[in-house]
Amino acid sequence: MKLSDYIMQFIARQGVGHIFYLPGGGAMHLVDSLGKLENIESVCCLHEQAVAIAAQSYAMHTNHLGVGLVTTGPGGTNAITGVCAAWIDSVPQTDPRDQGMSSPHSFPMVEESGSVCRSSPLSVDSLGWPRWFTRRCQAL
Questions:
Q1: First vs last Cα of the chain: how many Å apart?
Q2: Long-range contacts of 28-32 (CB under 8 A, 24+ apart)
Q3: Taking all residues of the chain, what is their mean pLDDT, rounded to a whole number?
Q4: For the segment 36-49, what is each residue's pLDDT rounded down to a tens digit?
Q5: Domain 3-7+16-139 is classified in which CATH homologous superfamily?
């Protein structure tokens, strides 16, 4: 089983009915795994900020976890406003990202924006993310 399949199935078991996303190369595995789920409606948005704000609104109005998927790099930074708004309002929201390709000249997204907003991991740590996510969902 792929990690992205596990993540999407875990999210589905939390009672999430909708996931908001904007496809991109850095999120292709998560989006592919989302497409395999029959019990979650996927809502494609036109901008990353709209994804994060839609996930926040969903969580506020349904009392379920809000989930937004965007690609790495600029896609992640475009979503920061909505992610931080969810954090400020204490809205249960997660915005997982695939681990983008790295090179000696790339900068990890977590280091770039980890101090800006602490509501969710901005890149997937394949070992620590499932434990972190499970603890957060149990706290809801």
A1: 27
A2: 28/98, 29/2, 29/3, 29/4, 29/98, 30/4, 30/69, 30/96, 30/97, 30/98, 31/69, 32/4
A3: 76
A4: 999 999 999 999 89
A5: Thiamin diphosphate (ThDP)-binding fold, Pyr/PP domains (3.40.50.970)
